[in-house]
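REQUEST ID: PR-0412
SUBMITTED BY: lab tech R.K.
PRIORITY: routine
TASK: structure prediction, single protein chain
INPUT:
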Amino acid sequence: MKLVIPLFAVLLVATSVALAEKARFDNYRLYRIQIDSVQDLEVLQAIEQLREGYTFWAEPVQLNSHADLVVPPHKFAEFGELVERHGLRAELTVTDLQKLFNDEQRKSKREGFGWDAYHHLEEIYAWLDELLGQYPDVLTPITAGNSYEGRPIRGVKVSYKAGNAGVIMEGTIHSREWISCATVTWILNQLLTSTDMQIRNIAENYDWHFFPVANPDGYVYTHTTNRAWRKTRKPHNILCVGADPNRNWDYKFMQGGASSNPCTDTFAGPEPFSEDETRGLSQYITSVASTVSTYLDFHAYSQLLMLPYGHTPEHLDNYDEMLEVAKKAADKLKERYGTEYKVGNIAEIIYIASGSSLDWVKGNYQTPIAFAYELRDTGRYGFVLPPEQIVPTAEETLDSVIVILEEGERLGLHQPFAEAAAKQVANRLE
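STATUS: complete
OUTPUT:
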């Protein structure tokens, strides 16, 4: 049947494309606001619900914490009145957000792919293609389906030999968290090129499943249109686009820390796996889950190493065992540059947040080692970490990953999965 598209719809799309411009944040300010009382929390949550020009980088979710709020110039006077009327403790941390974005996005003179600048999606995918050509005996291309806008969710599998336990590394499920995909790609490169004995040990004795950009539509949008974008790009009503892909997984869905309002940054979606991206990733993870001992999920910012779960502060599954591993990993991470991380479960050390990929992996498959990183920093730059901090962030993170895997070996947590992987290989060869 021939599809007839009304003229007004064509004109509407054409007009939208013509009017689309890259958002600028000249003179936008970033404030850190302490949440000392129930009144503080209620005021900030009211601002969040109204969504009239304000954007939270760290949401107001609980007492004795803080919120990071972006205030546009036309709201300066109003925000000042709110601070005075309600006695909010607000610290100005950034005076001109656009300047931070400009500094972050400056390009280096390096030829080819490197880690002194942040890269566009097509650059990352082109680099993956180069690696596949250079290491055909070690690398295999993998995909987790396509995004809503039709982009493949691409990755690579690193495997030096059969029978290894698997490690999944996921980055940039929240599209504005650029340091996460930069860290994941740097670690991937180290597993292929480093001569360090500890790195060679983990490179060659595990099968690695890398997905540097789990939310490609959102990531592209942060480069082309709005650097501060967090969600997917699927429309959910006439005005609001996108769901939070880290609230959209089918485990304790909408049981705290997620919104039913499509216009908020933490909108969980109308139902679990409503987003192409989370559905595709979940299907890939399911296909390899029996051979995977470790799941590592990378976010920014706050300098936290977090355990499941986000829906409850209760210490479930092998929490106590993993807490000790996390403490050792955080201690190792601190050694190189003095960077301090807090450890604990999601609900305790950051906020209630249900429907995450980490919780789904742990809750569905009881994957023994499952951590989420909130990478640098603690708020000075927030999502706009300067490019010169990419390599130091990645170096100290890899230091901690090595400890996590070595501790897993000591505790015997990888062996059943290595045996399952070897059995799968044997079955394929029969």
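NOTES: DSSP finds 14 helices and twelve strands in the chain.
REVIEWED BY: pending
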